[in-house]
Amino acid sequence: MAKKVLMLAGDFVEDYEVMVPYQALLSVGVAVDVVCPGKKKNDIIATAIHDFVGFQTYAESRGHNFVINKTFDEVKLEDYAGLYVCGGRAPEYIRLNQRVITMVQYFFEKNLPIAAICHGIQVLTPAGVLKGRTLTAYPAVGPDIVVAGGVYKEIDADKAITDGNLTTSPAWPGHPAILSEFYKLLGVKIG
């Protein structure tokens, strides 16, 4: 039976940060259910493209439509071998959903593989699971990690940090690094 990962996303998830890991995981035989609070299978979420074009922070443009492939209310956590938390603007509001927090806590309590990228770490901070953990995120999320009891490390955007069952990266240039680490945590062997 193929391993299955639960992926948390929502409207204005960063385009690359949902599309790339979703497709990459599928390409190595991992099944992926992408869910969003309040959404059902076949509902659409809007993505956003974040880019640096001369401002002090990223600019946001409308991206693609992404089709949710699992109804949020039908998720059975015991069906999943791991959790992937996407970045973008979605984390700032999906973390307000208590079931999202419960889902995150479940994966930490079971010591299952967890990957979170960029602003996705905002979903982890209110769950009370970062105390003593070393991780990274988009730099603007660094203070949230510290307040949540974690150790924030600023690293290059194309790198990842793994601490136990948790791997994190600051932004989408880190996909090769975070996905490589997540595959190891999942026990996926390539080649």
Give your account of this protein's structure.
With 191 residues, the protein is of the alpha/beta class. It is 27% helix and 25% strand. It has six helices and eleven strands. The strands form three sheets. A six-stranded mixed β-sheet has the order 3-1-6-7-11-10, sandwiched between helices. Helix 5 links the parallel strand 8 (134-135) and strand 9 (151-152). It is globular. The model has no long low-confidence stretch (mean pLDDT 96).
Structure, briefly:
With 191 residues, the chain is of the alpha/beta class.
Write the layout of secondary structure elements.
Blueprint: E1 4-8, E2 13-14, H1 15-27, E3 31-35, E4 44-51, E5 59-67, E6 82-85, H2 90-94, H3 98-109, E7 114-117, H4 121-124, E8 134-135, H5 142-147, E9 151-152, E10 161-163, E11 166-169, H6 175-186
Parallel strand pairs: 1-3, 1-6, 2-4, 6-7, 7-11, 8-9
Antiparallel strand pairs: 4-5, 10-11
Write down the overall geometry: globular
Number of helices: 6
By secondary-structure content and strand pairing, the structural class works out as: alpha/beta
Low-confidence stretches: none
Average pLDDT taken over every residue: 96
Helix percent reads 25-40%
> For the terminal residues, how far apart are their CA atoms?
19 Å
Described by strand count, sense and barrel closure, the largest sheet is: 6 strands, mixed
Beta-strand fraction estimate:
25-35%
Q: How many beta strands in the DSSP annotation? A: 11
Return Rg in Å: 15 Å
Q: Strands across the major sheet, in which order?
A: 3-1-6-7-11-10
What letter string, H or E per element, gives the SSE order? EEHEEEEHHEHEHEEEH
